[in-house]
Design brief:
This protein is mainly beta. Helix content is about 15%, strand content about 40%. The longest helix is centred in the middle third of the chain and has 9 residues, at about 155-160.
Length: about 350
């Protein structure tokens, strides 16, 4: 069966005055189900509230646009109230309860990427809402709700029936919400636009990697992530994950070209990619990208907490490690061609600026 790796845009699942929730569907992006990956996006308008919920999947959240407030409750711990802004990445393990509020003046957009190995549906997130018309209270009879929380019948009716919104609601401008608290961001959030760079190539590109060292909760989530930004016309060298991880990539800004090569040297994807699209690179497949004039950036998760990549160009390329005689025999070329090939790209780089 041929793999369909075509990048896709998400579809709206639900929404209203407060904002919308979008998701990528396994029926349109089969690699989601194949790789047990979920992907979704939350867009909140001003004063929009994504009501408290928990999910059947661990995720990494990345703030694509805007600013606001997030509430995070780990099992049997106190609520953390965190101010969030563009570039923030947050690891969300199993069992965490979250809410999201747009306290800013512009749209707040958050990307969610995660694994669905234990989810109800492969390739999809299922959220369980604590309030609203589809909240857990609505499924229990008034008797059960009353006895569980020691409430009279009248209070139960107000508690269960007052909020008619579903998933996302818009609050009145005068409604007060919790303010972010000093220290609550520590250990929960890493801003990828402000964090120290793991790779920085002049006129080439920059990388910030999320792992267990700079965001310990990544270990509980079970996969790593990174933000990559490459400059105009620059190339991200061909490479692959050598620890059997999948690469799930969302284009944050800009555009460019991508090629993916699989088994038997077959090119399985060659296309133009733009902001808002998502694609998945299968295990061990080799991928490379070249940015358009405006440059390109992407946020990815890799399905292991501390991923290892092999790049096929640059000083640390596997080609540099192989014996000259092996390369000459394998490529069936003379020593002069092999030496020319070996002598190129001697810098310790994974990004290549355009040639002058």
């Amino acid at each position: 069966m041929e793999l369909d790796l075509t990048p896709k845009l998400p579809k709206q699942v639900y929404g209203g005055d407060g904002g919308s929730y979008f998701a990528w569907c396994p029926e349109e992006l089969p690699m989601l189900k194949e790789g047990n990956i979920g992907a979704a996006k939350l867009a909140l308008e001003q004063h929009g509230l994504a009501v408290p919920r928990y999910s059947d999947s661990p995720k990494v959240a990345y703030v694509l646009k805007g600013s606001g407030t997030a509430g995070i409750v780990l099992p049997e711990q106190e609520e953390k109230v965190i101010g969030i802004k563009e570039g923030d990445s947050i690891a969300l393990p199993f069992g965490v309860v979250t809410w999201w509020f747009n306290s800013g003046d512009s749209e707040l957009v958050i990307l969610f990427l995660g694994e669905t190995h234990k989810a109800h549906k492969r390739g999809e997130f299922t959220d369980f809402y604590l309030t609203g018309s589809n909240g857990i209270f609505t499924g229990f009879t008034p008797e059960f709700v009353g006895r569980a929380w020691d409430l009279d019948e009248g209070t139960v009716k107000k508690l269960v029936g007052s909020q008619t919104g579903k998933g996302i609601v818009k609050l009145d401008a005068g409604v007060k919400m919790p303010q972010p608290r000093d220290g609550d961001r520590e250990g929960f959030v890493l801003n990828c636009l402000e964090a120290p760079l793991d790779v920085d190539i002049k006129d080439g590109g920059r990388v910030v990697v999320l792992n267990t060292k700079n965001l310990p909760l990544v270990g509980e989530v079970g996969f790593g992530a990174d933000l990559v930004r490459i400059d105009a016309h620059s190339m991200c060298s061909p490479g692959f994950s050598c620890d059997s991880a999948l690469q799930v990539t969302y284009i944050v800004a800009g555009s460019g070209r991508v090629q993916v090569v699989g088994a038997d040297g077959k090119r399985v994807l060659e296309t133009h990619i733009k902001a808002g699209s998502l694609f998945i690179v299968p295990r061990f497949f080799v991928v490379s990208k070249i940015a358009d004039p405006e440059g390109m950036s992407w946020f990815s998760i890799v399905t292991t907490p501390d991923p290892i990549f092999t790049h096929l160009a640059g000083r640390t390329s596997v080609w540099k490690a192989l014996s000259p005689e092996v390369l000459q025999a394998a490529f069936k070329v003379d020593p002069e061609v092999e030496q020319s090939f070996r002598s190129k790209r001697t810098a310790d780089a994974i990004f290549f600026p355009p040639s002058n």
